[in-house]
Amino acid sequence: MAAIRGSAGDRWKKCPAVCRKISFALVRMISNREDADKEECCSMFDHVSIGVKDLKRSLTFYDAVLTPLGYERLMKTDKAIGYGSDKISLWIAEVESPVPPDRGSGLHFCFTAPDAASVDAFHAAGMANGGEDNGSPGLRPEYSQFYYAGFVIDPDGYRLEAFFKLPE
User: What is the pTM of this model?
Assistant: First the structure.
């Protein structure tokens, strides 16, 4: 992997510490490199946007599931809401024609969690706020012996995951 330089590296310095720590761990896990550090890691996306039918329903759901993960609603308008920690990374907009849910597509969004209890709380909040179970919280040895995750489907059919890398 080539080192990240210039503006991408500068943006990396602004990422929350928990995101950097998890990203380093994922790079080490995927690449089998113990020397992965901030010079090699950078978030690929500035933000992701999804369309929903009912913004009020989505606000209730996402407020509940993202709070345990340390994310908050940073903006709300009549047609959109934005979530993140220090900047908006997830936009949710009320649209006329949201992408139809397709569970076989492989599309899902994975949120980093600060600990396993946050993954559990994410899943419980999803179930309590109109979500559907797509995998109870627990260790996922098929991914890694340290991969702890829970999965829900939001009210519009988007597949969501919360992930925490257990200590080695």
Answer: 0.75
